[in-house]
Amino acid sequence: MRNPWLMKPELVAPTGVTTASLGYKSFAGTSAAAPHVAGAAALLLSLSTGTTISDLKDQVVGYAIQIQSSPDCTYGYGKLVLDTSLVPPNSVEDFVCYPNPVSISEKGYIKITNLPFHTDVIDINVYTVTGEFVKSFNASDLIEEIYTAEKRRMVKWDLRNQDGNRIAPGVYFVVVKTLLGDKKVKKIGIQK
Fold first, then answer.
1. Alpha-carbon distance 138 to 162, whole Å?
2. How many CA atoms lie within 13 A of 54 on its CB side?
3. Which of 25, 27, 109, 119 is most buried, judged by most C-beta within 10 A?
4. What does the DSSP assignment read for 67-134?
């Protein structure tokens, strides 16, 4: 029996959508709306592992924007609209490594900059010229660049490997790759 104190539906999603599989004929109702909600939940879950079902539900409902008389029992909390910053970048554009070359004795660090703001969904790794893994960076290493017109992020690398040891002078490659397969490689020189 339905509890009158619970709001149902909790949100609404797009309907009247088209796909190539139906010859671009539109289809409506829950057959169209349910995949949108499931896709949103899958995207949110992929961005934060370890999320409970209850937390995931709250996150999805949190992306509902108010429409007409919502919140109510007709539209729930509103229409599901995901923030575009959640969409994985399909291009890493032209990231920059500077100073390059860098002297271990002078600066002791190099910046990997001009990264998309939602960089937590891309891989950033450093390798030697022979392909040996040196260092990887994750979302906790990212710093927002405050002096740019659009939101960008950067990593400040202290020239230490994954184990925390200072790297040797030489040539290294920074590889930045998106979840959608775009990959860019930059060469950096490390001097004494």
1. 12
2. 0
3. 119
4. -TT-SBTTTBT-EE---GGGSPPS-----EEESSSEETTTT--EEEEEEETTGGGEEEEEEETT--EE
In the DSSP assignment, the letter for residue 163 is T
Q: For tokens 């032209």, what's the residue?
A: 94
**Cα 110 to chain center, whole Å?**
23
Instruction: Let me know if 33 is exposed, middle or buried by CB neighbors in 10 A (0-12, 13-18, 19+).
Output: buried
C-alpha distances (whole Å) from 190 to each of 107, 132, 143, 157 are 11, 16, 22, 12
Low-confidence ranges of the chain (pLDDT < 50): 1-2
- What is the pLDDT, as a whole number, of residue 1? 40
- Mean pLDDT of all residues belonging to the chain: 80
Q: What pLDDT shows up at residue 61? A: 84
- pLDDT at residue 26, rounded to an integer: 72
pLDDT in tens, 6-34: 778 888 887 777 666 656 667 777 777 88
Here the tokens at position 89 are 């970048």
Question: Rounded to two decimals, what is the model's pTM?
Answer: 0.55
3-class secondary structure, 27: strand
**3-state SS class at 160:** strand
What tokens were used for 169?
Answer: 């002078």
